[in-house]
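Support reply, case 0932

Customer input (verbatim):
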Amino acid sequence: MPNHIAPKPGAWDGEARPLFLAPMAGVSDLPFRLLAKACGADVTITEFTNSTALSREAAVSWRKMESHETEVPFIPQIFGGDAGDMATAAEMLAETADIIDLNFGCPAPKVTKICAGAALMGEPDNLVSMVDGIIQRVDTPITAKMRLGTGQGANNALEICKSLEDVGTARLCVHGRTLRQRYSGEADWTSIKAVVDGVETPV
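Our regenerated output:
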């Protein structure tokens, strides 16, 4: 199976680079992703889906995992607060996925109240252990999306990314805001650059 993940690029010199369609809950269904592909998106990702529901084979959740032969690479995104359910869902998806993306960036209360999404950045050891467990159980490349931190105390995205690199995470994505900020204010590009410069994994 092709890896579908390019090595970390150097400084940008005006050359064309892959265009990613960000996963958006309630938006990034299959027709929308195929439309984005037709309009030039190189990489599309499903809307995030609850790993516990997937592991229980909930039909509504599995419909979000539909793909098409023209959607290459196929990248489902999952979230959850239970490491076992996350690993089980990843194993189930590994049969069809080219890459599996893990969401540690969602600030929605319905997600953070189960210690999933961005809330796991407040428990970095559990976050890294969860990712490591998934990587040990599937051969499919695993990627992770996160925020700068929870907004309570110092940001820890760089430290988490270094640890995720150590366990074999294939690619990282950083939203330049904290959990507390949600979608307000400006993205902190300086902190994003610090992560990019601090790891060898593509960001």
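We compared this against your earlier run and they match. Two observations from our side: The longest helix spans residues 124-137. The domain at 20-198 is CATH 3.20.20.70 (TIM Barrel). Please reopen the case if you see a mismatch on your end.
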